[in-house]
């Protein structure tokens, strides 16, 4: 079984961030209160090539926190963890503190 996945072309491997379901005081949060579909970039592919042959790099880098579409991506399971593969153009944006 594979331990590491290196995405090809303009693909991005993302681990989805699961929001906490309760506060530190123990109050249960409703599911809709923290509905931000985000993830952490684990690995990126080398990029793709344009029609003229120029290399087009991927727009995010490893470690970035990104905003993901509600649907889409390919689910990948490596060991016990679940990841999702997205194309670079499917990423909606990056999140910053």
From TrEMBL:
Pfam families noted in UniProt: Cpn10
Keywords: Chaperone
Superkingdom of origin organism: Eukaryota
GO cellular component terms given for this protein: mitochondrion
Gene Ontology molecular function: ATP binding; metal ion binding; protein folding chaperone; protein-folding chaperone binding; unfolded protein binding
Transmembrane segments: none
Function (record text): Seems to function only as a co-chaperone, along with cpn60, and in certain cases is essential for the discharge of biologically active proteins from cpn60.
Similarity remark: Belongs to the GroES chaperonin family.
Subunit structure comment from the entry: Forms stable complexes with CPN60 in the presence of ATP.
Protein name according to UniProt: Protein groES
The organism of origin for this protein: Deinandra increscens subsp. villosa
Taxonomic lineage: Eukaryota, Viridiplantae, Streptophyta, Embryophyta, Tracheophyta
């Amino acid at each position: 079984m594979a331990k590491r996945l290196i995405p090809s072309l303009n693909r991005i491997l993302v681990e989805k961030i699961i929001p906490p379901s309760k506060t530190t005081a123990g109050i249960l949060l409703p599911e809709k209160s923290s509905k931000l579909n985000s993830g952490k970039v684990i690995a990126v592919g080398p990029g793709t090539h344009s029609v003229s042959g120029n290399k087009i790099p991927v727009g995010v880098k490893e470690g970035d926190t990104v905003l993901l579409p509600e649907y889409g991506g390919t689910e990948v399971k490596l060991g016990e963890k679940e990841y999702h593969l997205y194309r670079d153009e499917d990423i909606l944006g990056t999140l910053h503190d």
